[in-house]
Structure formats: C-alpha cells, structure tokens
Amino acid sequence: MKDETYELLDNEGGSPVKMWTGGVPVEEQAKAQLANTAKMPFIYKHIAVMPDVHLGKGSTIGSVIPTLGAIIPAAVGVDIGCGMMAAKTTLNARDLPDNLGPLRSAIEKAIPHGMTPKTRGYKGRDEGSWQNPPSAVDAAWTQLKDEFDVICQKTPKLKNTNNYRHLGTLGSGNHFVEVCLDEQGAVWFMLHSGSRGVGNAIGSHFIEVAQQDMRTHIANLPDKDLAYLNEGTQHYDDYVEAVGWAQKFARMNREVMMQNLITAVRKVIAKPFETHVEAVNCHHNYVQKERHFGQDVLVTRKGAVSAREGELGIIPGSMGAKSFIVRGKGNPESFNSCSHGAGRTMSRNEAKRRYTLADQVRATEGVECRKDANVIDEIPMAYKDIDAVMHAQRDLVEVVHTLKQVVCVKG
C-alpha cells in the first residue's frame, strides 16, 4: 500500500519513525523522546506516530510501539486501558430540556468524579469513589475479583488498592462524561476513563520492577523509563497477566458508567428512548499481541486507537470542540492505528498561566459544563486543532459521525 501522508523522523541509530503529523505542530522534546524509543533493540519494523503526538512520561503520547521479545511498562503507562465509550440513542436534540443544568447535575450525582486532594494525614474516602457501590458495580466486580485475587497472590502490595470502589467512576484530569449531538441531531452519550487507582498501582509497580531488573544496565538506556521486561521471565509473565486484567477492568469501568449515565438521563427526560443504536468501547492506552507483516508482535498504543479495516473508534476533541466516530482503513504502516484525540500543545501549568476564566467561559459557550478556575487547563486552546489532526490521518480513518457536546462533566 503506497502511503504519502507520513513523514520520516530524522533520527540516527534507531528504527524508523513514521509520523502522520502533516499540518500539525510537533514539539522538539517529543521528537527527541521518539528517537530514544526507536533506539531500543527490540522495536519491530518502525514506530508509528499519530498527529496528536506530544511529550509523555516514559514514552511519547500518540505513539504506536511494536516490540518483539520485550515490553516497556512505562510505555503503556499507569492509566492502563484508558479509553472511550460512546452510544447513540433514539433521542433527538429537540428531546433535550432547554435548561441542561438539571441533566448535568443528575449525571454528576450518578457517577463519582474528581478526587480528594492528598493532604497530610488524610485517611477519608476519596470523593471520586463509591460510598456504597450500586448493584451494577457488584455485578461487574464479580467478573473481575477471582482473577485479581490470583494477581494479588503474586503481587501482594496490589491487594489494598482502590479497585472495587473505583469501578464505575470517572477520575479527574482529561476524563469526562458528555452528552453530544451528531450531524443529524441524534443524541449520543460519550465518556472517557480507564483503570483508575488499581491500574495506576499496577503500572507504577511494574515500572519500578523493570527499572530494578535493569539496575546494572539502566545507565545505558536512553531514558530510565524505557526499562523493559524480557519475554520468558517471571516478571514479564506477571506483568502481561496484570496489564491484561487492568485493561478488562477499564473496559468494564466504562460499561458501568454508561449504565449509570443512561439511568440518570432517564430520570430527567421522561420520553422513553433506546440506547446502543450504535456503540463503541475502545482503549487508547494499552498493549496486546497482534499480527503485523506476517509476525506476531506486542503492540503498545500510548495514546492511540486500533483502526483495523472497518473497525469503529472514537477520536474526541477537547472541552468545547467537536469529536468524531471513525471507521478504520486498516493502514498497515500505522499498525492499523489512529490518534486518540487532539493532543495537547502545552502543559497544564502553561495553560493556567496563559488563559483566564473569561477565556474558558468564552471557549465553552453553549456547553453546560464547569466554568471555574480549576478546569482552565482543559481549555480547548491548550489542544491542537482537531480538524488539522483529522486531516493528517485521512489515510488511517474515515469519519462516520461528527459529534458536538452540549453537556460535559469533568472531575
């Protein structure tokens, strides 16, 4: 397949880096980080870079890293299985109330969100977890508990993580729940979250394990966060088992949230409606075994979505910007991948320095959402132009639906 929409990164001494970034900015630090990852000896063929690429911890966000015989825990990161879920309903824009405030409030009550600041000596419940988990959480946890108990036998420190009470909760940062309208006025529900506290604990533990395993060689790595686990070792097997479980937790976390979101909306909108007319649930921070160019390889998508031919995915914009339901084109050079969003152009601290609350209010006009100083870092101007991002990956996906949010809940 001839592909002219990617560019090769000029890096010496490493595997090729193919970048679908035409027309979008790429910071020099991200390019340097990509070049470092490409120097690892077990990279298969090349690294594929999506147009939302930006500097990350461990590995570059917006990168697809295929490996043979080794895995880099920090490339997967600590928000294991983070991803998106969207469901189209039979509701139309005219079915929504004129005042969307009560709808947003109902969603906020139905789904724990945010987190309690970690102040010295604080031992209370995290506000982003359940006080009394509902039946949907119990049912989902039943499907996860036995496998988690086995993992805890091998890694006892994971036993006391916040898992059961985090199942079906949102978190903070760029995680969100939205009510959106597509180009025909159909109402969609969309949300973004991952494996929460337990995924963070699993990721952090195995990043440390990999660095300890390589303590005599870590100085020779381009970056200590590129510490890896070799296939055939016990730590490799334990990590693959744990990360697979965390990805399952993340998927079920989104499913439980969606159930509770639907229930909340039905309390506000009296008109009967159906959901899942169309539905997508996809990871964008994960690792799994796939077959590419005739070889079974581990593919780590660090802020990237699987886009096999005909496969549906979700590419969200930023708070106040449009999002897309896409269909993959199965481009082999990208390892059948696409971007996971717009991608940040600046740090959260820089966004808070540069923009004001008035800027945030203007940028989110028409969206029922938080408009306060604590979400300025999520202002749309802190992200790349989503239209430019979509154009840069026109050979990777086609747009099926364009969504615009009318309600946005953030932690």
UniProtKB/TrEMBL annotation:
Where does the chain bind Mn(2+) 2?
192, 284
Source organism (scientific name): Pseudoduganella aquatica
What reactions does this protein catalyze?
a 3'-end 2',3'-cyclophospho-ribonucleotide-RNA + a 5'-end dephospho-ribonucleoside-RNA + GTP + H2O = a ribonucleotidyl-ribonucleotide-RNA + GMP + diphosphate + H(+); a 3'-end 3'-phospho-ribonucleotide-RNA + a 5'-end dephospho-ribonucleoside-RNA + GTP = a ribonucleotidyl-ribonucleotide-RNA + GMP + diphosphate
Q: Does the keyword Nucleotide-binding apply?
A: yes
Task: Indicate yes or no for the key word Lyase.
Answer: no
Q: Which family does it belong to?
A: Belongs to the RtcB family.
Query: Per its Swiss-Prot or TrEMBL entry, what cofactor is needed?
Result: Mn(2+)
Q: What is its EC number?
A: 6.5.1.8
| Subunit (UniProt) | Monomer.
Residue ranges of the region described as Disordered: 114-135
Q: Which UniProt keywords apply?
A: GTP-binding, Ligase, Manganese, Metal-binding, Nucleotide-binding, RNA repair
Record's Gene3D superfamilies? tRNA-splicing ligase RtcB (3.90.1860.10)
In its UniProt entry, what is this protein called? 3'-phosphate/5'-hydroxy nucleic acid ligase
Pfam (any one): RtcB
Q: Cofactor stoichiometry and binding?
A: Binds 2 manganese ions per subunit.
